[in-house]
Amino acid sequence: MLTSKLAALRRKKGLSQEQLSNLSGISVRTIQRIEKGIVEAHVTTIKILADCLEVDVENLLGADPSATSETVTNANKLSPAFHALALAGMFFPVLNIILPGVLWLIKKDDSINYDFHGKQVVNFQLTMSFFCFPAILLMIYYFPLGFPLFLLLYFYAITMSLINLFKSIKQQPTRYPFSYIFFR
Length: 184
Fold this sequence. Notes:
27% of the residues are buried. The chain has helices at 3-12, 17-24, 28-36, 43-53, 57-60, 69-76, 79-89, 95-107, 112-141, 143-169. Helix 7 (79-89) packs antiparallel against helix 8.
């Protein structure tokens, strides 16, 4: 999955394997083995390479023409669960963060996709929770403004979670706008 994509992005950037090695601190031999598909890169290695190539991790992991659909399906089979757990938790305070957060902590080392989706969901749910606190305070002191603001935030969070749930099921890129990045 990462093999020719890494080589293509490296060449597009105009870097040799040696130059990428100097930038990233990853040995030339490791880069060669990853590009040839001899080894599967560790999550932290992929993150370092993505930073050096100035691309998103998801872009670096983009579908490879030589990858079989079975490999891609197996690598992404739990990705929708992160978005679904956030939705399930939306009806019980704090579980919208705890449920996907626990799954992310358990599965983040299994796949870079799990790490990516888990961080994305947890970051968004934390952001929405922090935005809801002022809305709740405003609702206490000035209900006509606080209540509609709270509802707007709540339904925005549900809508974005649903959209990204369906995108992850279809294996399309997911995105949560207005999300602060707590976990990189």
